[in-house]
C-alpha cells in the first residue's frame, strides 16, 4: 500500500486525529495567552519582576518534553491532563517575553496624554497600552503555536490526543507494512495544521492591528 492509498483508506481516522491535535493546541494556547499576558501586565513595570518572569518561563522551556510529561503522569494520570499542563507551560515564554517587550515599548508620551485626559490606570492599559503592544504579543502567540504543534506530538507518550499517536505507532512498528506511512501521515498532518494556524494568525493580525501601527 502506497502513501496515497493509505491516506484514502484511513482518512476518517486521520481527520479525527488532526481535529484532536488542533483542538488541544488551540485550548492550550488560549490558556497560555491569558496567563502570559497577565504575567506581562503584572511584571513589565519592574525590571526585576520582568526578568524573573522571563527567567522562570524560559527555565520551564528547557525541560525535555518527555521528562516533563513523565513527571506529570503520576500526579494527574494519563491522557489529556498531562498534555494540557505541559503544553500550557511550554507556550508561556514567547508570550510573556513579547508582552513585556510590547508594553515597555509603548510611547510614554501617549500614556501621559491618556493620563492627562483623565483615564484611570486600568483604562489606559485596556484602551492604550495593550492595543499598542498587541503586534508583538500576537507574534509571541504565533511562535508559541508553532512550538506546541510539534511538542503536542510527544503527548502520545502519555496517551494524549492527536497526530502524535500515528508517529509513535509507526516508530514502534518499524519494518511493518504501514509503519512509514503512519509516521509520514502524522508528520505531514502536523505541518499542515501549523501552516493553517499561522495563516489564521496573519488574518487575525490584519483584522485587529490598525494600519497606523502596522506602518
TrEMBL record:
Pfam families: BPD_transp_1
Statement: the UniProt record of this protein carries the keyword Transport: yes
Annotated transmembrane regions: 21-44, 64-93, 148-171, 183-204
Localization: Cell membrane; Membrane
SUPFAM superfamilies per UniProt: MetI-like
Membrane topology: Multi-pass membrane protein
Keywords: Membrane, Transmembrane, Transmembrane helix, Transport
ABC transmembrane type-1 domain segment(s): 18-201
Top-level lineage group: Bacteria
Protein family membership: Belongs to the binding-protein-dependent transport system permease family.
Cross-referenced PANTHER family: GLYCINE BETAINE/L-PROLINE TRANSPORT SYSTEM PERMEASE PROTEIN PROW, OSMOPROTECTANT IMPORT PERMEASE PROTEIN OSMW
Protein name per Swiss-Prot or TrEMBL: ABC transporter permease
